[in-house]
Amino acid sequence: MILPSVANMLIVSLVFRILIALSCITSTKAAHSRKRAVVYARAADKYDRAISTFDSSGRLLQVDYGRNAASRGSSILAFIHEYKNVTADIETNGSTASSMESIYVLVASPSSFKVHRIDHHVFILTSGLAGDGRFLAEHLRQHCQSLRQAYGHAPSIYQVAQRAARLQHYLTRTAGARPLGTTAMIIGFDENQHDENSAALTARIYRTDPGGILEDCKYFVSGQHQDAILRMLPEAMDTNDATGDCQFDVIAKLIQTMAKASAAFAEKINPLALDVWMLQRNSSCRGTLQTTCLLNVKADDAAGMSRLKSHLTTNA
Fold first, then answer.
1. Which residue has the higher pLDDT, 292 or 40?
2. pLDDT at 165 over 80
3. What pLDDT was estimated at residue 39?
4. What pLDDT, on a 0 to 100 scale, did the predictor assign at position 197?
5. CA distances to 24, 139, 157, 243, 305 from 134, in Å
6. Strand-pair partners of 47
7. Is the pLDDT of residue 55 over 90?
């Protein structure tokens, strides 16, 4: 009684497999009048099921998905602004001017979960999935702590950025993992590296993406409307003066640029509110880095823009 049932099961299984094979066969007409059968494996088109599998064009689709997730995050603009610090010399009855650098960051409000302090002298800005950004920030924070304990000094901005790029690249070649859906900007001032033409600490901005690419930038835009903001950016930053009023003019133009780019897509009725972060050298502050944040600054808010101008003029 058992043998017939087993035989029936084998026959049914064989018939089922034949039907599946026939469903994948399509007839194509060759150059001559004869027809030949071509079998297409439908599952082969699904290259995005594993991170370690390339598609037919040589791309990792999961990495592209991670970049798409990062581009949907809030808009972030960071740039380095050079200015001259003029000090009076009582002995010579004159003045001396030294070249200084500041880092300004414009982040769509609220920015509390997009800006992370990694060490005394370095911050990380993330655009994309907030959870992935927190994971990356915590990993870099532990890395900086271990380097301080092992070598007794802080890592450079490049070392921190390189660690972030290595982690993101590692996840693209690890089976069972997925890339982080966030673009990271590592900003700060190197404590142990000085510019060749100045004794001031050197400002740095590095950018990493879900594929593990590492870039050194003077300015960078990430998140929503990044292409539109980049097109408007050269005109907004076309000011090379070195006064506090000039710094305000540059930042005011950039705020208006980000507001125009956001309004062009008509996604929000209210004007775009930005948090303006300013990083400057100050030997009396933690890590010789003075950090100031002005919240909810809008292009059409006279009080907020006046507060921004007053701060920039005072610290110029």
1. 292
2. yes
3. 46
4. 45
5. 46, 9, 19, 37, 31
6. none
7. no
